[in-house]
Amino acid sequence: MTIGIIPNISKSEILDIVIKIIGQIHQNGFDCILSDSLLQYEKKLKDDSIFLSHDDLGKRCDMVVSIGGDGTMLNTAYEMRHSSTPIIGVNFGKLGFLAEFDLAGFTEFLHDLKTKNYVIEERMTLLGECCGEELYAINDLVIDKGPWPKMIELTVKVDDDYVATFSADGLIVATPTGSTGYSLSTGGPIVNPKADVITISPIAPHTLTMRPLVISSNQKVSVIVNSPSEKIQVSCDGQRVVFFDSPAVINIQRSGQSVRLVHSNRTNYFEILRNKLYWGLDVRKSNNSN
Predict the structure, then answer these.
(1) What confidence score (pLDDT) does residue 243 get?
(2) Can you name the CATH fold of 2-124+258-285?
(3) What global pTM score does this model have?
């Protein structure tokens, strides 16, 4: 088996972590290929190291390790969107909800990898379009007012059926994977990744009756946006930002390309929810209470 390595090179001590992970991969009898972002450290790595672009890594490797945090994981998934190579997330960022393993956990997981004691989960993604430009997201597509200080007007349609027109700071269209991201902070529901749905969550709507909506992933969403400002901002996974002239129509649907994430059989989705988001825990039982 060949494992690709894609690190977030902006992280401190990233080289030491990469060298450690390379050693662990080799000790377990696997080969590895490195991201070409590591070329700047070429002299400090083994002479026989192979460096490839992220797209080529997806084509050459059986699995790819994303080292960083959830943002690194999302960026890795985006850059490898044309391949079906499974992604393993190693976290030394902040939350690490998508990047399931810490460094110690990854060491244990390599044994599970040899014994095939793991699962590969298919995660749906979104495909958007506006003015002929393609928009792709693993977590969410966010339509918002950008630097404009006032609200914008949004009209939402689902399968060409009128839903509502309202004023707000914006709108989040999220996958189940993205339901624990920005959507959650706006009052959107937590959606199990196995659910085949899309969530639509307004951002600070100027009405008490405009609440989050869950629709089938087979349905198409159209958002007509009017802003007093000249531009409308659309953000893909909080990483790729595109500006469109107002008014604009953004069409969003399920993408035909899914992301494949590798998970350990030692844990499950609800355990991760409890451990990392403290979901369902009784705060009255906190050790901080008098």
Answers:
(1) 95
(2) Rossmann fold (3.40.50)
(3) 0.91
